[in-house]
Design brief:
The relative contact order is 0.21. Strands 2, 3, 4, 5, 6, 7, 8, 9 and 12 form a nine-stranded antiparallel beta sheet that branches. Strands 1-11-10 form a three-stranded mixed beta sheet, covered by helices on one side. It is 15% helix and 31% strand. The protein is built from three helices and twelve strands.
Length: 213
């Protein structure tokens, strides 16, 4: 599996089975003080407390201090590690995520065979609308299929390029913010629902409600 395919594969698993839209630029700038911290996000979240397929664990990142580290694990033990910022734009919350490490070698990320190839790898961002944190963590992502439909109807909706049949957003942070706010409530654009909840306490008995979207 190539590095490119592996990174897309990891994000596909992370974001509900669909390939998320990738952006060269982030959804925030430090100067505008758009990044906020919400401790309610910290901890473990699962898609199904009775039989989790995926486990999301948020902790405070050491660097940068106003970010979170997200460790994602699926049932097969495959993992991903991301830096996540919680972004407030006009009182709407978004998550901006990018890889904390790039998967240079699928079998052993500590043994880089093609060292100089890594100089050409750039971490890209993806983002989601955050609808709620408690009692359930609800978010909606913009995926490849969604953005392709939008751009087919309106090619100037957001600056982008297409690389090997993949849409890559090239818009500036300011342009991305305008795009995110304009389409935040459009379920044809941010259509990828992700609903998580806290895991069932060990030894707890009785029914636990499953996710509803």
């Amino acid at each position: 599996m190539t590095i490119k395919k592996l990174s897309f594969y990891c994000l596909t698993i992370l974001l509900g089975g669909c390939i998320p839209v990738m952006s060269l630029h982030s959804l925030f700038t430090e100067e505008q003080e758009q990044v906020v911290v919400e401790d309610k996000l910290i901890g473990v979240w699962v898609d199904d407390p009775n039989d989790p397929e995926t486990i999301w664990e948020f902790s405070r990142a050491e660097v940068p201090e106003n970010a979170y580290k997200l460790t994602f694990t699926n049932r097969d033990g495959n993992k991903g590690s991301f830096i996540v910022h919680l972004v407030n734009l006009d009182d709407r919350l978004f998550l901006d995520a990018y890889p904390s490490e790039l998967p240079w070698e699928p079998e052993d990320p500590n043994k880089v065979q093609l060292l100089f190839n890594t100089l050409f790898m750039v971490p890209v961002h993806t983002f989601a609308v955050l609808e709620s944190i408690e009692p359930r963590l609800k978010m909606r992502t913009c995926n490849d299929d969604d953005i392709e439909k939008l751009l087919k109807a309106n090619p100037k909706a957001v600056r982008h390029t297409v690389i090997e049949d993949r849409v890559l957003l090239t818009a500036s942070t300011k342009e991305l913010q305008s795009f995110a706010l304009k389409y935040a409530d459009d379920r044809n654009v941010f259509a990828g629902d992700i609903v998580l909840q806290r895991p069932k306490p060990k030894g707890a008995k009785g029914p636990t409600h499953h996710n509803t979207r």
